[in-house]
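Morning!

This is the sequence you dropped in the shared folder:
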Amino acid sequence: MEIVRIQWLKKVFRKWNKKIPVLIGVDFSVKQGEIYGFLGANGVGKTTLLKCLFHYISHQGDVEIFGTKDYYHQKYFTRIGYAPEVTNLYPFLRGKELLHYMGKLAGMKTKLIEKRSKELLDKLGLTFAEDRLIGAYSKGMKQRLSLAASLINDPELIFRDEPMSGLDPLGRIIVKDLMKELKEQGKTLFFNTHILSDVQEIADRFGILHKGKIVHEDKPSSIQGSLEEFFTKTIRDIDKNVKVK
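The structure's back. Tokens below.
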């Protein structure tokens, strides 16, 4: 079953009366219960696509989530978790206060928020900092707290933008283990990244975005050798107008 379906998504920015096409016809889908890695070099439009999905910016094309185009209403958003790459968290709140606030926004009861907060802070190695002001958190700690905030309402579908950005080796292991655990629970995860080894390790499928389109989709298990080598060859062959087999 497809939980996310994108058809012919287009986004063109304008600067000084000049059109700058970023997404020129993106088509792909994400199946329920899978981890989908969305690959691309920096600046190709990975974050722009997420902003289109959440209607932060206007776009053309069709997007369906949970089988509807009207997924941006509250009843659907409570089933979705999203953590951006740039963690603009409230610096004057403490870690557990942020989770409480996000839980209330999701319409959760206090006892459930406290239970979920304790579980998530423990899983993400942040229990020691739950009473610390977020402004004193390191970048990696903010990344993990942002992930916890996106999961407080126990969403069915989780979007992450560069989930490993700013994390130390231990933080990356913690986050990857949590992503695997979420998949085992039947959750669906979609994440943007340029760290190809992470995709090869945890994703069920991946798509490569290049020049505004999905130029290749596959399973990491189908790739011979490293995904980094495959990705580099695919992009270089396209840029040289060589047909990729």
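Headline: The mean pLDDT is 92.

More detail when I'm at my desk.
O.
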